[in-house]
Amino acid sequence: MATSKIEAPSPAPIESKPKSALNPQSANEAEATAAAGKEASQPPVGTNPHGIPDWRLEQSPFHIESEWANGEYRYKVTGDTNTPVPPMRPSKYLTKEQSIEMLRYMIINRRMEATLESMYKQSQVIGGLYLSLGQEACSVASAYALDKDDWLGPMIRNQGSMIVKGYQPSATMMQYMGKGASPTKGRDSGSHYGDLKKLNVVAPISHLGDSIGVLAGVALGARLQGKNIACLAYIGDGGQSTGPTYEGFNFAAVQRLGVVLVVEHNSWAYSTPVELQFACKDLADRAIGYGVPGVIVDGTDANQVYDATHEAVARAHRGEGASIIEAKLMRMKGHAMHDPAQYIPMAVKEYWKRRDPIARMEQYLKETDWMNEGQIAEMHAEVERFIDEERAVAEAAPMPEPEEAGTDVYFDNATDIPVKYGEVRVKHANPNRKLTEPSVHAHYK
Ligand SMILES: Cc1ncc(C[n+]2csc(CCOP(=O)(O)OP(=O)(O)O)c2C)c(N)n1
Ligand SMILES: [Mg+2]
User: Fold this and answer.
1) Is the beta carbon of 210 within 6 A of some atom in ligand 1?
2) What is the pTM of this model?
């Protein structure tokens, strides 16, 4: 039987990234020069006890212990939760215009979710609503580091990433309302939508960790078409513990696929605290076991999230494989609207409230003289008007027609799956190969 062997395309060069009209000349060279200049003014980077780079400018000054008493878990917070908020780490790569654009995306993310919350309370939302208050910098800044050809594998809290990738807030609202013009035409609920044709978004998979293997498959597919892409996947501190997370990411590590895994470490998985979930301190330590680079960032500092993702994306484009970014942050609402999250100690909530990612970004933009108070207020007002208009569009849209309920549910085998990046390159293995040669179907240099 003929065994086919897949020819390894040489790693694609890093593409220049005209992020938007705001940044017409972000070619590699200009970027490298700018980065070198900004590198010099960077605060030092620490390492954790296992040698993982830790970009944070503040390690957690407190510790949460839990004990089982009278039939419930009680938390004891030791240490100081009142330490001053650290400054943001200056970005090595972001321009003024990009930083301002990122702030706007973060405000859109927050305003859209606040609107969804009020719609939920007015019974306009069908099913659950999962919010990302406090996590906007992580979603927005990581997705902002992707190029157009790169892919996104969001989880329920990454509505901000979806907006950066190109979804209109009205599309997300219609999705939560089950409207006929929503991305799934009212067939699936809430955050479960994606776009394989235009926006390169794999819809979230409920089973935690399963998206990672799919994103690895997307990266493999692109490589077989001669292109190294980055596939940005997210997983929570809870979802990190599942088998599919390990299996999917290990596959990416072994095959050197450009999966960038952002671990959103927000200290709770639903109501389960991290000490009941894993025994290590930093989830980025797992990078050592996978054999990929890992880094710890402050997930409320958009600059750290952007820079770390930008570097991981560049590695992916160079064909150097997968990376892990652990973002430490806090989910400021419950798991979903039905969860008041009373299990989180008030002092811990207050600590993170002072580290609000949007307030920190605004402070940074004021300190750099890139924006003033009036411009920030104008941006909030403009976004408010925009989201109100988007809500009106979503509310005016009709529900799906009942007779269409059976369509667009199952994959239609007659649908052509377009090849996005080029012809698939496969070459036949040497039929005379020695039996001692490893029998592999995919062989890369
Ligand atoms: C394999 C699997 N087990 C359980 C669940 C139910 N579930 C959905 S979200 C969630 C908590 C996830 O916590 P985490 O990964 O920390 O993400 P966070 O909600 O904190 O962002 C659980 C248990 C699931 N979807 N999949
Ligand atoms: Mg969590």
Assistant:
1) no
2) 0.90
Question: What would the pLDDT profile of 139-193 be if each residue is shown by its tens digit?
Answer: 999 999 999 999 999 999 999 999 999 999 999 999 999 999 999 999 998 899 9
Q: Given a cut of 50, is residue 352 above it in pLDDT? A: yes
124 C-alpha to center of ligand 2: Å?
27
The answer to whether 88 and 361 are in contact (CB under 8 A) is: yes
Contact 428, 2 (CB under 8 A): yes
- Helix/strand/coil for 379: helix
Q: What is the CATH number of domain 61-398?
A: 3.40.50.970
Residue 248 Cβ contacting ligand 1 at under 6 Å? no
238: Cβ below 6 Å to ligand 1?
A: yes
Cα separation, 136 vs 302, whole angstroms: 9
CA of 331 to the centre of ligand 1 (A): 13
Atom of ligand 1 nearest to the CA of 264: 21
Ligand 1 centroid to residue 148 C-alpha, Å: 29
Q: Which residues pair with 269 in a beta bridge?
A: 272
Q: How far is the CA of 253 from the centre of ligand 1 (A)?
A: 23
208 ligand 1 Cβ < 6 A: yes
CB 153 within 8 A of CB 214: yes
Give CA–CA dist 74/297, Å, rounded.
28
362 C-alpha vs ligand 2 centroid, how far in Å? 26
Which two tokens mark 45? 């980077």
Give per-residue pLDDT as tens, 80-138. Answer: 999 999 999 999 999 999 999 999 999 999 999 999 999 999 999 999 999 999 999 99
> From the CB of 270, is ligand 1 less than 6 Å away?
yes
CA–chain centroid gap for 41, Å, is 27
What are the residue ranges spanned by the domains of the chain?
A: 61-398
